[in-house]
Write a structure and sequence with these properties.
The complex is a heterodimer.
Chain A lengths: L5 H23 L9 H9 L3 H4 L4 H9 L4 H17 L3 H14 L4 H18 L3 H21 L4 H17 L3 H9 L34 H16 L11 H5 L1 H15 L5 H18 L4 E3 L3 E3 L5 H12 L6 H7 L2 H15 L1 H11 L2 H19 L3 H20 L10 H20 L11 H6 L1 H15 L2
Antiparallel strand pairs in A: 1-2
Chain B lengths: L9 H31 L3 H17 L3 H17 L5 H16 L6 H37 L2 H7 L4 H34 L9 E7 L1 E5 L5 E2 L12 E4 L5 E6 L4 H21 L11 E5 L2 E3 L11 E7 L7 E3 L3 E2 L11 E4 L2 E5 L6 E5 H5 L5 E7 L5 E4 L4 E9 H29 L2 H16 L1 H10 L8 H10 L11 H23 L9 H5 L6 H14 L1 H14 L6
Antiparallel strand pairs in B: 1-16, 2-3, 2-5, 4-15, 5-14, 6-11, 6-16, 7-15, 8-9, 8-10, 8-14, 12-13
The chains are: A mainly alpha, B alpha+beta.
Chain lengths: 469, 563
């Protein structure tokens, strides 16, 4: 080797380079119809290309290339910075740091989940003004939405976006204002902050176009996100790792129920609200209920299943070839299958929501809700004791009538309904006290009231704090 | 960060500097004497005196022309070494910065802060790495390739070589920084959304002293509501708990001229566009930055309410409550947190409940002192504040004022780093000079210096290194006392020596913390002279003489043939 001249050595180097280039070129050939490079082939097969994971962000790709192997270190430093900025309440900087983290790790699901939740739940809670809090809830939702665009296969991110837009907006302490802000965005320059969101002055203010372009209720928007989550989750080879699959898949129908429930909480009792419950019932029983899923130990199941369906499921499983002999015995066993269905119904509270949907679309139930709501409004807001008493007694009676029906007994165990009934009795008792009328020995909803002394004490205290004794 | 860093005590610092310099020269002469005696025996004294005389001649016959020539060569060399490629990185960063930070949040007010800190931090990181790095390698390379050997055979003094190098690198740094600063300024102004353009300002605050009263009205401290960051203390709403701010030395003339300036601006804005005009200014403009903390939900659609009471500290019977306001914490715009107080204030007297009128200058602050009490009015809720969270706002300056002061701060830091780098390169090779310079910067800039200070003050539990090693070996946590005796005495002696070295190191390391001006500019404040600019200038100047002496001595005593 040492005897080689400089020119010969150089030629040898060139030859070596060319030799090494051959496998690199072969492996790295781009994908084409005729001849596919090995790496491109594998990338397509396992869907590992940037483009197949989600939209490609050129900034992110550039950053990752520029940092070579140091992006883990950079992300750690940024994460530390984000914690410090949150602690020091530097919100703008925090948002910027979070954006930088996801630029570096665009396909790390937990980063999107954690920081989206952090913005929507933690950062928003730090602000005192409700409009400001709403801004940060939106920031969290937008962040998660961006996550879904960059990672089209993570069903969890679609679910998280739905959670922020649905339950976060609809169930927070500030839900009344949040839900209105979702329709009339306070960040819109034309929004008049001196007036409530649903006042005529803000009637023309549009919602945030990124989150609610079609000006819909927050629960209906979240339903779309949950539906998308289910679609993505059902893609071949794609499984969510959030929680039990059946619970995960129940969210679109639950969102419809939440929408109907929110209408009641806002005092909307009309054909629209009843239709919303009816739609919820339909989706629960004819869409979610007939969704066939693979259970952990009992093969294919569906929640809405009579004996014939159970048998059909057993027969279907009998045709399967992807199971062991032991599994075959269990999967095709009628009793085992039925038991598994019951077990999963309990797990998802399936029967309760079925009964609830059925009851709520009943006109008597709707009237019971409306009268109790109107009675509270008449008595506590307008001071009209007589109208209030009349309405609440009628409402309580109708509610009891519904609860007495054999098919609806399960409803007595539900938290929200219990709350409504107990609060109705408390208000009614207060009315009697004002009228100096004795409490009758028997009255509607007495059983529920007597059986829940802890909740009674809790609601009585809230009532006393809000309205005095 | 706190924007009311204590004022720099220039005279005291000058005194300490004089003492340190005295010690430094005694040390230099002492060490020279010792070295000479060891080398030349009794003739050592004469050698030292000879060198001392030569040094005096060198310093008193400095030739600006020769320094200029070396500086000129240094600039040319820097350009030849592709230093200006830093502009390429700068250009790339700014071209694509919009991808990273543009539109991060819809709130324009928050964007301004991000944009300003991005620009200033990027500039400082680029400049403060590239130029000192160049300075670290300049002289060692000259020695290595023997070009310095050629230079010193000419009639060029060693201190001129040092100064020439220093000035050359500083000139390159200044040029690069000036261009980047200007481009950065234009970029910020262009990138700032229209709605937030008015947030590009330099507010000039006057801070007061802060005290608290507890819920019974007794002197006390604020409440900690459980945040890890205990910058703010909280007062309880609906009780006698208050925060009291004391301002002194206020001049009615200055406040009145402040008012005239603001009023003129307001009238102009009103004339231009009545809708987007700022709120009408008062004679006294107080700006708050309080933080609300809810212990329970309360009324959700209403922010927490607070009230300010102006009190004459010399006659506390004069108490003028201002109208109640809702606290707009982390507000979108600074103007929303401005409380304008007119000269004549009509108020309802707390005792008699009658409407009264008070004059700000004659009734409330006749001697230029003002007491402001802050109350939270929502029972059971809390309002948090720190000393800089309520200040009197004087006429704003242009954003450029604060921005270019920050650039000047970066320049001072750069000059100091170049000085350290050139000095280090006079006695060690390039890699070691780099390590030394950047270690000094790292220690001076990061919490390490705070930790060193706390250790010297005895605020850190667990003693010095010897005690810490013993505790680790013996599995003793810092709260367990080491039994008094000969062993603990021995540990203390060892630690005393180690801490002595630490103290020397602590005082040698430049306080780079004092050069942090970015936060002022990013948060819309002017960079204060007394608490920020003056200490930075003083520190930079303070290092000139020792660095020059060390650099000169090193170049004089160093064997130039040694690679």
């Amino acid at each position: 080797m040492n005897n080689l001249t400089s020119q010969q050595r150089k030629l040898l180097y060139v030859f070596g380079i060319l030799l090494l280039l051959v496998p690199i070129v072969y492996l790295g050939l781009p994908g084409s119809a005729n001849f596919k490079g090995k790496l491109a082939d594998l990338r397509t097969k396992y869907e590992l290309g940037e483009a197949s994971l989600g939209n490609v962000d050129p900034a992110s790709a550039t950053m990752n290339l520029v940092l070579l192997g140091m992006r883990g270190v950079a992300v750690n430093v940024l994460w530390q910075q984000a914690i410090e900025q949150k602690e020091h309440k530097q919100w703008g900087e925090l948002r910027s740091t979070v954006d930088s983290i996801v630029l570096l790790q665009p396909h790390f699901r937990q980063v999107w989940e954690f920081q989206g939740w952090n913005l929507a739940y933690n950062v928003s809670a730090e602000w005192d003004g409700v409009a400001d809090r709403f801004h940060w809830v939106k920031e969290g939702a937008k962040f998660l939405k961006e996550g879904t665009e960059r990672n089209k296969k993570y069903s969890e991110l679609y679910w998280e976006t739905g959670r922020v837009i649905g339950p976060k907006i609809g169930r927070s302490d500030e839900w009344k204002l949040f839900r209105k802000f979702f329709l009339h965005d306070p960040d819109n320059p034309s929004y008049k902050h001196d007036f409530p969101p649903d006042s005529p002055e803000n009637a023309d203010v549009l919602p945030d176009q990124e989150l609610n372009p079609e000006q819909e209720d927050n629960y209906l928007v979240s339903k779309k996100w949950f539906t998308d989550a289910n679609t993505v989750e059902a893609l071949p080879g794609n499984r969510q790792k959030k929680f039990d699959r059946l619970i995960f898949r129940s969210y679109p129908a639950r969102s419809q129920y939440n929408y109907a429930d929110a209408l009641h909480r806002e005092g909307v009792f009309n054909e629209g609200s009843r239709a919303a419950w009816e739609q919820g019932y339909k989706e629960w029983t004819t869409e979610y209920g007939v969704d066939r899923v693979e259970s952990s130990f009992n093969g294919t199941i569906q929640l809405e299943a009579d004996d014939a369906t159970v048998q059909e499921l057993c027969d279907l499983d009998a045709l399967r070839t992807d199971m062991t002999e032991d599994q075959r015995k269990v999967y095709t066993n009628f009793d085992a299958k039925k038991k598994a269905i019951e077990f999963n119904q309990n797990k998802t509270n399936y029967r309760y929501w079925r009964v609830r949907g059925q009851a709520e679309k009943d006109k008597t139930m709707e009237e019971a809700h409306r009268e109790i709501y109107a009675a509270r409004d008449a008595y506590l807001k307008q001071g009209d004791l007589e109208t209030g008493l009349k309405l609440i007694e009628s409402g309580m009676k109708k509610m009891q009538e519904m609860l007495d029906k054999l098919e609806y007994t399960e409803l007595q165990l539900e938290d929200n309904l219990q709350e409504e009934c107990i609060k109705a009795v408390i208000v009614w008792k207060s009315m009697l006290e004002v009228k100096r009328q004795p409490l009758p020995e028997n009255y509607p909803l007495k059983k529920m009231y007597d059986e829940n002394p802890q909740r009674v004490a809790e609601f009585e205290e809230i009532f006393r704090n809000q309205y005095g004794s | 960060m706190s924007f009311d860093a204590p004022n720099f005590d220039f005279l005291m610092s000058l005194g300490i500097f004089a003492l340190v310099m005295l010690g430094f020269f005694v040390l230099v002469i002492g060490l020279s004497m010792l070295g000479s005696f060891m080398t030349y025996g009794t003739g050592g004294f004469g050698v030292v005196m000879q060198n001392f005389q030569r040094a005096l001649i060198d310093f008193f016959s400095i030739s600006p022309k020769r320094i200029g020539a070396i500086a000129d060569l240094t600039i040319k060399e820097s350009i030849r070494k592709k230093t200006l490629l830093v502009f390429v990185i700068f250009a790339i960063l700014f071209m694509f910065a919009g991808w990273f930070i543009g539109g991060t949040t819809d709130r324009p007010d928050l964007q301004v802060r991000v944009l300003v800190s991005f620009v200033l931090k990027t500039i400082s990181w680029l400049v403060l790495i590239v130029i000192p790095l160049l300075a670290c390698w300049g002289l060692p390379t000259d020695i290595k390739i023997r070009s310095l050997h050629t230079v010193i055979t000419k009639p060029v003094r060693r201190n001129e070589v040092y100064l020439g190098r220093l000035l050359g690198y500083s000139a390159v740094g200044t040029g690069v920084l000036a261009i980047m600063g200007l481009v950065g300024y234009i970029w910020i102004v262009r990138q700032t959304p229209t709605a937030a353009q008015k947030e590009l300002i330099s507010r000039v605050p006057v801070y007061g002293l802060m005290n608290f009263t507890d819920r019974f009205g007794r002197e006390g401290t604020g409440i900690n509501v459980g945040y890890e960051w205990d910058f703010r203390s909280y007062i309880e709403g609906g009780t006698k708990s208050k925060t009291i701010y004391l301002f002194d030395g206020l001049s009615s003339d200055s406040l009145k001229s402040n008012y005239s300036a603001r009023k003129a601006k307001y009238d102009k804005a009103l004339q231009a566009n009545a809708e987007s005009a700022p709120p009408e200014p008062g004679v006294l403009n107080l700006e708050y930055n309080f933080e609300a903390f809810r212990a329970y939900k309360g009324t959700l659609d209403k922010r927490l309410s607070a009230r300010l009471i102006l009190v004459n500290p010399d006659d506390e019977k004069v108490r003028v409550p201002l109208p109640v306001f809702e606290v707009k914490e982390f507000s979108r715009f600074n103007e929303e947190k401005l409380i304008a107080v007119p000269e004549e204030i009509t108020y309802r007297d707390e005792e008699s409940q009658q409407l009264k009128t008070a004059n700000l200058f004659t009734d409330i602050m006749p001697k230029g002192n003002l007491k402001v009490e802050v109350e939270c009015l929502d029972p059971g809720q809390y309002l948090g504040m720190a000393r800089p969270d309520l200040f009197i706002r004087m006429p704003d300056k242009y954003f450029a004022t604060s921005y270019f002061k920050s650039i000047f701060g970066i320049w001072l830091q750069l000059t100091l780093m170049i000085m350290l780098a050139v000095t280090a390169s006079c006695f060690v090779k390039g890699p070691v000079a780099t390590l030394l310079t950047f270690s000094l910067v790292l220690v001076g800039m990061t919490p390490l210096s705070t930790m060193m200070f706390q250790m010297l003050q005895g605020q850190i539990e667990g003693g010095g290194p010897a005690e810490a090693i013993y505790r680790m070996w013996a599995h003793m946590n810092p709260s367990v006392e080491i039994q008094a005796g000969a062993f603990s005495y021995f540990l203390k002696i060892i630690d005393g020596i180690a801490l002595g070295f630490l103290a020397v190191a602590f005082f040698i390391v430049p306080g780079f913390v004092n050069f942090r001006m970015v936060e002022y500019t990013a948060n819309g404040f002017d960079v204060p002279w007394m608490s920020s600019l003056l200490p930075a200038i003083a520190i930079t100047l303070g290092y000139v003489i020792p660095c020059l002496v060390i650099g000169y001595c090193s170049l004089t005593l160093r064997e130039m043939e040694a690679k």
